[in-house]
């Protein structure tokens, strides 16, 4: 179904700007995932209340079958797709949404990679020695993951329970746990442009001491069937502290 938006070029520009703002408002809202899906349906230029209601009946049933957080994963996928389409001046119609949901939920039904997190080790390399003869060891982002640069990358901490046990409830002596992780996340994200990740990071946890984090591996979240919307996790292991 071809959707023709009435009005001048300027009105169309305003329409897409307004549509994009509305989608981002839905993303940022604290509403339950299923309500966000219903709100996205209302953004369709061919929105029909009866058709949307029938679609939501089917989607609610399917999202329930997906189990824990299934509705959240599906809502996030739909919101990201709607945002991409609005940015390219192409509104997502109910027909488009129905096809997206059918494809996504069919993959979920078939258990195609819905819970898989394949790991990638990456190749290690050393920098040139400095004037004191010291060199740094880095891990290169594998070529198979190069497409993730500029897309969704998230820091993940292996052995998080041990990290929490070490640093939580000790604010009198140590930096807060979230402050340590925030600094680590900032340093890891600085590595994205070069595609080289430090083998070790030392993050201060007190005036004269560092928490040590060692690179573990990369993981790709295949629970999202559409590769364009998958997340790459950069996994570091909390190792120990040094003073």
Mean pLDDT equals 81
The count of DSSP E runs of length 2 or more, i.e. the number of strands, is 8
Q: Which range best describes the helical content: under 10%, 10-25%, 25-40%, 40-55%, 55-70% or over 70%?
A: 40-55%
Distance between the termini: 66 Å
The major beta sheet can be summarized as: 5 strands, mixed
What's the shape? elongated
Order of helices and strands: HHHHHEEEEHHEEEE
Unreliable runs = 110-115
Class based on secondary structure composition and strand pairing: alpha+beta
Strand content: 15-25%
Compute the number of helices: 7
Please give the radius of gyration in angstroms.
23 Å
Describe this structure in words.
- It is a single chain.
- The chain contains seven helices and eight strands.
- The chain is an alpha+beta fold and 243 residues long.
- A hairpin with a 2-residue loop joins strand 6 and strand 7 (209-221).
- Helix 1 (9-28) packs antiparallel against helix 4 (70-87), helix 2 (33-42) packs parallel to helix 4 (70-87) and helix 3 (49-65) packs parallel to helix 5.
- The relative contact order is 0.12.
- Residues 110-115 have low confidence and may be disordered.
